[in-house]
Sequence to fold (446 residues):
Amino acid sequence: MKSMRALAVAGVVGLGLALAACGSNASGGGPGGPSGAGKTLTVLMGANTVFPNEQRQWFADVSAQFEKQTGAKVQFETFASPNDELTKIQTSVLSGQGPDIYALGTTFTPTAYATKAFVELKKEDWDKVGGRDRFLPATLGISGPDPGHEVGIPFASRPFVMAYNKELLAKAGIDKPADSWDGLREQAKRLTGDGVFGLAIGYGDSFDPWKFVWAMSVQAGNPIVDGGKARIQDPVTETAYRTYLGWLATDHVVDPAAVGWKNAQAIAAFGAGKAAMLPMVSASSKVSLDKSAVAGKYAYTIMPTIPPGATSLPSGGKAATSILSGDNLVVANYSKNRDLAMSLVNLLTSADLQRAYYQKFGELPTNAGEAKSLQADPALAALVESAGKSVGTPFSGAWSQVQLAMVNVVVQSVPNLSAGNVDSGKLAGLIADAQSTAQKALDKAK
Fold:
């Protein structure tokens, strides 16, 4: 048992049978909805740093609606970073207690699946949340390793795109953002000056840096994880890191203050007209930008799909516009109120709640009917295109640790960025460390 606990802390895998034995199978009702009088469900969800007040109000509204419907209250807890997210999963897996429902980023769903600590969805479970056909097929792409083995119920779709200031690009004689990363860098140089920078990037954000490096690597033909082998220590991935870090350190197309920016600050800078292009944003940015100084002056487009150093997609490369991104809801096996939890999931994925969530936060719905109603909005055309061209990250229980290792390379590089350089030797060492960490995680996940 001691070795199993150590493995869970290191890789969050291997405790499936132990937790299945400890977990409760208690149920509280049928398809009509269980009675929850006097009960409280706990839900873990990422903290919304862009709309914190709105999120708190949404929590209160959902709890009130669910209490009216079932008699049960809902208590929301939040995590602030991927590390917090992983730690909470680990703690709950070890103790066999914690939140009833987790709203996990899609890239963390494989980790949740690997623990076997979450409900593997059968037909009767899907029926309790409105049926599998309630959801857009693409959003089910990372619910599990295959349709017969799924734990994730799609809650929000978050394909990434790039926002650009139409007026600033036109003034510089640029028709639209380039389709290659090298071309984007050259455009960013032309757009930098007079207090405006070509790009707005949140280098201090704990969620986004790895996504840039992953996209460039996949486009170059390196999937980062190939079977059970990590491939972070690859020349094209090192080039991806140099490109991403170089925008600030050597190209000077990003505000130097961005070394400490979160994504919300990058959005604010673009919204204030202080940056011409804002890559790696989702539809949630629209809520802020439509109230900003660039309202009516910006548009979305897909991000470059040609990797650094290339003028066309190389052989073996994938034209990934985004990770297959969003949030999945998973229900813990140990929950003493599993049917009640399914009833809450049913509410959260209903057309009405999905519409309200989109209107408040800009997160695209996974509810097929509600998503279809948004497709006619021309402002969302690039997001719809990106959703269709997104590429899923590897479905491995080790992936959460792989992406954290990739982010750490950026975190450890920030001091040098402030000094205006990318130290080749240090970067190579950091990438080697990330490779080692990722490979160890993959080995333990086998």
